[in-house]
Specification:
The chain is α+β, with helices and mostly antiparallel strands. The protein folds into six domains: 2-42, no CATH class; 59-154, no CATH class; 163-232, no CATH class; 237-361, Sandwich (Immunoglobulin-like); 366-450, Immunoglobulin-like; 459-558, Immunoglobulins (Immunoglobulin-like, Sandwich), CATH 2.60.40. Strands 17, 20, 21, 23, 24, 26, 29 and 30 form an eight-stranded mixed sheet that branches. Helix 4 packs antiparallel against helix 6 and helix 8 crosses helix 11 (219-232). The protein is elongated and about 140 Å long. The termini are far apart.
Length: 596
Amino acid sequence: MDWFSANKMQANPEKFQAISLGRKTHDKNITFNLNGTTIACVEEVKLLGVTIDFNMNFNSHISNICKKAARQLNVIKRIGKHLCRLGKLTIYHSVIMSNFGYCPLVWHFCSEQNCKKKKKKKKKNKLKIQERALRFIYEDHTSTYNQLLDKSNLSSLKTRGMRAMALEVFKIINKQSSLFLQDLVQLRNARYNFRNQKTLELPRPRTTRGKHKMFTCWNFFFLLVGISNFVDAQRPDIVDEILPEVKQKNQIGYLNCTVVNKGSESVVQWTKSETVNGGNPILLSEDDKIVYQGNDQGINEDSGLKKYDIQSRTNGRRITYMLVIRYLAEEDAGDYLCTIKIQGVEWPEWPKKIGKLTVQIAPQIQPSINSIYEQNIGTSLQLNCESHGNPYPNITWKREDGQELPLGGFQSRGAQLNLTDIQRNDRGNYICVADNNVKPPDNFKVELIVFFAPSCRPVQSSVGQAQNRRFNAKLECIVAGYPQPSMVWMKEGENGKRIDIQDDDKYDITKQFSSQLQNDEFWYTLLVKNVQAKDYTKYFCVGNNRYGSGETNIVLFETMECQGSNCPSAGGSGTSGLEASLSSILLLGLLSLFLI
């Protein structure tokens, strides 16, 4: 009350709580008088979220947080079907376990009996809550509690509490904790040089009543004396996990190994312990020096840097040794072992941790695949496409022209593409694409050639042209077939008789090429020069090979005006226009003679 008066503050008696510790003291019903207000001692009070009872066993607090965690777990179970395992684990750590992570040093060991209650009593205890949560996350109702902990890579609540207590003792010993905690214990100064020279000096209660709660709290430190001695021994150790590294070919890989309490008698080594080729382990470095002398350690001509390098950085008692691997190749992938070599200690007891390096390789299709296949109609064929890369590539088949595959669909996933009952429309180019998200993807083209009889189709089924005016007519035909057909032009003569057409002064036969045609298609042109009345008839395009023949016809008919791109324009340009101009000059000359 003097403090309130000195700071010009007025105490509110309704905000005060009183509790007497111990059964005998509590039974005396002690009361306090504050400015005329009587304050009686209660069985339990809540201070900063922790419920303290007069017996100092914290049973009420444990029961409250277990009930709260159980309610939260029941709510999460209702929405569990909408959550993935990672989401469940995130909620487990942030919601469920946060209840047991608040002030564990105060109540953890005092409530040990709550963890040992029989299941048949159906009491909610903290271990049971953790077990129920893990069974819900992993959907496992057969494994034991310890097996669930191993599967989730988690520690039990008891182990977590012991770690928290051990950390606090370590802080007290090294003067890193609060002053009021440091005042609770003292370091014993032994008169002799024992191994456990630094041990905690604990208070000795003047009572034989082992159940006295005020002194039971000190018994926790007896369990931690051995732990504090081990921590204080400062043995070298690797404190953090070595995170896996995933890089692409020709990039730079980094692996970090962080050690603590490294003395002058210990050496940190990096060793290439396992490779993709199954080679022997290779010692790469000792402390911050590269000792590897392989052929690939030479200086790169472009960058001027070596393949392996070590970079170290110090943060208090922690030293991080970073292994740098440049110009990554496929053989660099594998396990890298970080080891602390301790003098006078056998190799199996050296601290070790493994870092995994994955080198991503762009896909590459193996050249064993054939690029051309020749098949008869009605046969079957299996196209195989094998690819190499890391990660293993996804392989997709498709047609180069974008048409649908013979078995349906525009893409087929997998290394094999089965073609059954092959028909002439199945011919063409098939492309195998290998992709693993490492650029660039690889592809390979396979040409399927099908033996079939020729088929012919006209570019235009009828062509018109004017007669007796020195105009030409162009007839065009596309012939498909394999092997390549022999092609002839014919026309219908008198009485329907077909007449072979030869390449001469009247007819001009040419073979054209187009990127729009397939490899077994050919474009033929027949140019009928200076069209006359007798040229108006039906023309035949005929193709032949050993599998048969095919034909189509084109009709040439008369028109009044010139047809085609080579006709004279209205302005008289072009060759025909020049002829018209010369005719006009001659006509004017003749008229001038008659007029004279």
